[in-house]
Amino acid sequence: xxxxxxxxxxxxxxxxxxxxxxxxxxxxxxxxxxxxxxxxxxxxxxxxxxxxxxxxxxxxxxxxxxxxxxxxxxxxxxxxxxxxxxxxxxxxxxxxxxxxxxxxxxxxxxxxxxxxxxxxxxxxxxxxxxxxxxxxxxxxxxxxxxxxxxxxxxxxxxxxxxxxxxxxxxxxxxxxxxxxxxxxxxxxxxxxxxxxxxxxxxxxxxxxxxxxxxxxxxxxxxxxxxxx
Length: 228
What we know:
The chain is mainly alpha-helical. Helix content is about 55%, strand content about 5%.
């Protein structure tokens, strides 16, 4: 087997690099062309396309999706999908700011093809583990830069899992209850957002007022699904 230790310095990998490393072949080595990683690249691409499908569901469909309806059967299971670095970044911005237009615009018009993506060792490790797949290369070995950021805290970073409809609505319902208890009217989005932002600032927490307002606007729909 090739010496792959120099790849321990890498934080992210292309689909081609990941496929060859899974086989224990150095993708940058002189012997790479003697091997075919097509079958693994196709599996990685399928998992990535599954992630795009779930992202499209979250951005285009889920905002008007019935609370009690099951997810469409065509969606790949959450554990089976593989999200690229770019997809994670755009998902996080979308969830933080609720900007559906920007997120769906990225999905529609940016280069989201598999061959243009890079994947974190974390996401690759999670995907392998949750799907019971073996790899000749240890993606779960953190690079020096990654390890140093967690040195001494004993924490093992976990891949973030997106909130389901039910989890999101539960959190929004909890926010509504806390607002009522504190005497905040969450239907007055701008005023209450400003109050929450000010209170957060006294705790040393910085939250955008628009971000808070966007979440408050989602509360009525969440409550409608929970009312008995």
